[in-house]
């Protein structure tokens, strides 16, 4: 029997909540029904950003943002369903990622924390909500991230061919699908987050560098690139995951010199993404014949060109070539993880996250 799930995803970029309605058949095969990108209002975004980098947390601010993000998510779901002309009663569950404000799987008490009160989301939509997808993997000793590789294998695996799926969100993560169903997956470092934070710092009216426009006016500052490449994350072995905790302006700014221009810094940050990602791809157990990009960075032509140039004979394209719009892959992955929860199937993969065992991811909050 096929079922309908809503997948909700808002990543490190905090640009928008991506909402998808997905039809999933009895074998877990997903088909995208309707999609919507619902921007996060600027004031909410700024408060979430502040919370995610601040060392001093106010309990009241945390609690209020938990509610506000949940209300934002509920409006996104209700708009999605009205666009789809599907009544709430036809949807099995919402799979809600929530907004990450802390991700520290390497802490002495490992944790990962996503905001978006599931009770309010369930009540405001009249749909059951599956949430907190990362926590059980962390409880099992895993990174809690990335979670998309299992989905990538489920829908993109190709026999007798080694391929890679690269998600260019705030953070970049890679999934390697080997010829004998092997799977590797890990974060490679920043994709867009440093570029976004830098252009926002230079120009309050910009949230990202459209098509790499600013970067294209600059040139790589080799000494800065070399210092950035010394970040310990890049030499850490997988399983590994990262976030704004490690890659933010507090890390970047002390490395800048007065004579660096904004466009040269932007170009260098773009080169950092291209360099670190291509190093990881070139170091995979077998070189992928093809790399398929997804996530917002797919729209940055300069970034894609810079990555492609570093990959030699590997053919580069987007997941569109595999039949899935690159913008919706991650939200669809969470819709599928919701299906996995309902059908008691493990959603993590220990080879990817480092968890001690496969576990069913998420918790469920009923709407009534
Ligand atoms: N036209 C574009 N040119 C350059 N970058 C873009 C473009 N469109 C989207 N992006 C980048 O993609 C990011 C959003 O990607 P997304 O996959 O939603 O990431 P996340 O999962 O972190 O939310 C934006 O913050 C921006 O950096
Ligand atoms: Mg996004």
TrEMBL record:
InterPro entries: Anhydro_N_Ac-Mur_kinase, ATPase_NBD. Pathway: Amino-sugar metabolism; 1,6-anhydro-N-acetylmuramate degradation; Cell wall biogenesis; peptidoglycan recycling. NCBIfam families: PRK09585.1-3. HAMAP family: AnhMurNAc_kinase. Catalyzes the specific phosphorylation of 1,6-anhydro-N-acetylmuramic acid (anhMurNAc) with the simultaneous cleavage of the 1,6-anhydro ring, generating MurNAc-6-P. Is required for the utilization of anhMurNAc either imported from the medium or derived from its own cell wall murein, and thus plays a role in cell wall recycling. Belongs to the anhydro-N-acetylmuramic acid kinase family. This is Anhydro-N-acetylmuramic acid kinase.
């Amino acid at each position: 029997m096929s079922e309908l799930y809503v997948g909700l995803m808002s990543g490190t970029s905090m640009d928008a909540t991506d909402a998808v309605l997905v039809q999933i058949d009895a074998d877990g095969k997903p088909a995208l029904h309707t999609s919507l990108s619902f921007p996060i209002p600027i004031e909410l975004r700024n408060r979430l950003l502040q919370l995610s980098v601040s060392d001093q947390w106010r309990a009241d601010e945390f609690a209020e943002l938990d509610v506000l993000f949940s209300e934002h998510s509920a409006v996104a779901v209700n708009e999605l369903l009205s666009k789809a002309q599907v009544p709430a009663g036809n949807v099995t569950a919402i799979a809600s990622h929530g907004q990450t404000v802390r991700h520290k799987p390497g802490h002495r008490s490992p944790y990962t924390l996503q905001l978006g009160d599931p009770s309010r989301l369930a009540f405001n939509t009249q749909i059951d909500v599956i949430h907190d997808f990362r926590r059980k993997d962390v409880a099992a000793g895993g990174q809690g991230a990335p979670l998309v590789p299992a989905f990538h294998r489920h829908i993109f695996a190709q026999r007798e061919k080694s391929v890679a799926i690269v998600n260019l969100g705030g953070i970049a993560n890679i999934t390697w699908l080997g010829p004998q169903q092997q799977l590797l997956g890990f974060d490679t470092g920043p994709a867009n987050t440093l570029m976004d934070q830098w252009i926002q710092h230079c120009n309050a009216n910009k949230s990202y560098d459209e098509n790499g426009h600013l970067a294209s006016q600059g040139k790589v500052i080799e000494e800065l690139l070399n210092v950035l490449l010394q970040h310990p994350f890049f030499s850490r072995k997988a399983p590994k995951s990262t976030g704004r905790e490690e890659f933010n302006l507090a890390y970047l700014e002390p490395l800048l010199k007065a004579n660096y221009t904004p466009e040269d810094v932007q170009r260098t940050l773009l080169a950092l993404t291209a360099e670190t990602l291509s190093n990881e791809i070139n170091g995979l157990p077998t070189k992928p014949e093809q790399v398929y990009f997804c996530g917002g960075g797919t729209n940055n032509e300069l970034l894609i060109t810079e990555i492609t140039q570093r990959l030699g004979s590997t053919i580069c394209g987007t997941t569109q070539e595999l039949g899935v719009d690159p913008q919706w892959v991650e939200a669809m992955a969470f819709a599928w993880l919701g299906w996995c929860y309902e059908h008691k199937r493990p959603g993590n993969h220990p080879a990817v996250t480092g968890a001690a065992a496969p576990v069913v991811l998420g918790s469920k909050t009923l709407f009534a």
